[in-house]
Amino acid sequence: MPDNIVKVDGLKAGGIFTVECFDSSGKLKWRDTAENLVVNAGLNHLLDVVFHGVSQISPWHMGLVGASPTYAATDTLSSHSGWTEFNSYTGNRQEFNEGAASSQQISNSGNAASFAITGSGTVAGAFICSVNTGTSGILFCEASFSQGAKSVSSGDTVNVTYTLSAADDGA
Fold first, then answer.
1. What pLDDT does residue 110 have?
2. CB under 8 Å, gap of 24 or more: what pairs does 89-93 form?
3. Is residue 2 part of a domain?
4. How far apart are alpha carbons 87 and 76 in whole angstroms?
5. Which of 160, 139, 135, 157 has its CA nearest to residue 60?
6. What is the domain range of residue 64?
7. Domain count of the chain?
8. pLDDT tens sequence for the chain (171 residues)
9. Which of 95, 100, 139, 170 is 20 to 30 Å from the Cα of 162, by its Cα?
10. Does the residue 5 lie in any domain?
11. DSSP string of the chain?
């Protein structure tokens, strides 16, 4: 390494969605996980809140992604040409109701977001954003299921938890 370059340790942050789908009788239909991509807008917001004094957002909201998503770091809530939102469920996007950070993690594992499905379709991932409807907010992250797209039917319930971890990159 040249003398004028200083090697510094870095920060890595990432999250995992855990998604379970139950049929109308409460029987587990499928379970999957999805490792997220924290998009540029999400990273910028994180840095702005921690270091630049920008107001934090509370609450954040979780949404579901339809079939065959393709993600990019440049995706925003208003512009994400590689995927569409799945919205055949009751109400709006569900609140990400997280507990306090502990051991460099924050999660809603004690209060999963629950989506009451109102129509048949395909769900292939999840995302977190700053608004419960529309496209005017901040997209924080997006993720595809590790085992591919899944079918849902009217009467199903899809429960979503998200755990965000931060750590030194070990460099």
1. 94
2. 89/64, 89/115, 89/116, 89/117, 89/118, 89/158, 90/115, 90/116, 90/118, 91/116, 92/61, 92/132, 92/133, 93/61, 93/62, 93/63, 93/129, 93/131, 93/132, 93/133
3. no
4. 18
5. 139
6. 13-165
7. 1
8. 455 555 556 878 889 999 999 999 999 999 999 999 999 999 999 999 999 999 999 999 999 999 999 999 999 999 999 999 999 999 999 999 999 999 999 999 999 999 999 999 999 999 999 999 999 999 999 999 999 999 999 999 999 999 999 888 775
9. 170
10. no
11. --TT------EEEEEEEEEEEE-TTS-EEEEEEEEEEE-HHHHHHHHHHHHS-PPP--SEEEEEE-SS----TT--SS--TT--EE--BSSSSEEE-----BTTEEE-TTS-EEEEB-S-EEE-EEEEES-SSSSSS-EEEEEE-TT--EEE-TT-EEEEEEEEEEEE---
